[in-house]
Amino acid sequence: LSTLKIAIGAMELTKKCVRDVMTDIDDVFMLSEDQVLNAETMTRISDSGYTRIPVYEGNNRNKVKNLLYVSDLALIGKDNNITVKAVARFNKRRLRIVDETMPLTALMDEFKMGDYHLAMVAKAMDVKKHHHGKFVDDSMDSFIMKSMKLVEATMLPPHSEDHPITLVGLVTLEDITEELLQSEITDE
Ligand code: ADP
């Protein structure tokens, strides 16, 4: 892999946003908090091959509030019938929700700071509509307002009745690095 190719990949990255590289929500492997960690669920988890699994409340896949690490399951017996909720709440893995329009470079900066390398992605409209818990009209969109939204977009609260969000995907550091290395040099 040439240095040139990586340099071009890095330049391409500045034009892209989270939505361009995320894994679509329909392809995200998640578990409900209510699920019991029996032999069948444990097999599904290990068959998925993922190391981190978003956990949602009840049956609402927009209500992702926790993250389960496969390594958290190491000490759990298959016969104890513990719920996902018990394990996820005990380990309290950091979960972030970002706006789908967040620039990739901004997310990369956050990932570089190091305390999390996976984020759930929310539909942009939801963020705008519920900025600071108040409805925000497009016509009021000043530059400052937009910048504030961008900052806030990196720390969205999870789904609630006052602040409903629609999740559209999941993004990890891997998605960004892959994008960096994949970009083709197109001859124009
Ligand atoms: P892992 O450590 O689980 O292999 P990576 O961070 O290496 O995850 O990501 C590999 C790819 O899998 C990325 O495209 C990422 O978006 C996707 N991914 C990660 N976790 C999940 C999940 N729970 N469900 C679906 N896709 C996932």
TrEMBL record:
It comes from the Eukaryota. It is found in: Cell membrane; Membrane. Coiled coil: none annotated. Metal transporter. Belongs to the ACDP family. This is Metal transporter. It comes from Caenorhabditis tropicalis. The lineage of its organism: Eukaryota, Metazoa, Ecdysozoa, Nematoda, Chromadorea. The chain holds residues 224 to 411 of 657 of the full protein.
